[in-house]
Amino acid sequence: MKIAIYPGSFDPVTKGHLDVLKRAAGMFDKVIIAVLKNSAKRSFLPIEDRLKLIQLSCDYDNLENVEVDFFQGLTIDYARQKGANVLIRGLRAVSDFEYEMQLSQTNNALAPDINTVFLITKPKYNFISSSTVKEVALMGGDISKFVSPPVAKYLKEKINKE
Length: 162
Hints:
It is built from 6 helices and 5 strands. Helix content is about 45%, strand content about 20%. Strands 3-2-1-4-5 form a 5-stranded parallel beta sheet, with helices on both faces.
């Protein structure tokens, strides 16, 4: 069984993330979308909510070979725990590549048996970032073009409560 890990913060998960996830799910037997639990970083959404929103988005898109999980520590250690030898990284623009290449090379130096596969988001999603989604949502804008319906509903309710 070919297992891939798609790590990230997904704060919140966007249509760009889901585009990469859908294509990875078509390439591998199982894809684990894994949210990095980083206590040093202040997140917009609690990790439990991010996991729930990713699962709702996967259910909405009928992604049956995707598992939603979280981890702490090095991604390569988590990949080994899960029996994965591929990491999925999404690229939106050329500017992402330099950082992602450096990260990939670091991971390769630490774990040469784990490969990184870069998937470029479709052009209609390449401008979407979690930061942009948060900003538009906080300003009362329509984010339905940027996130799945379950995420849009959740964020609207969250912001209206606050």
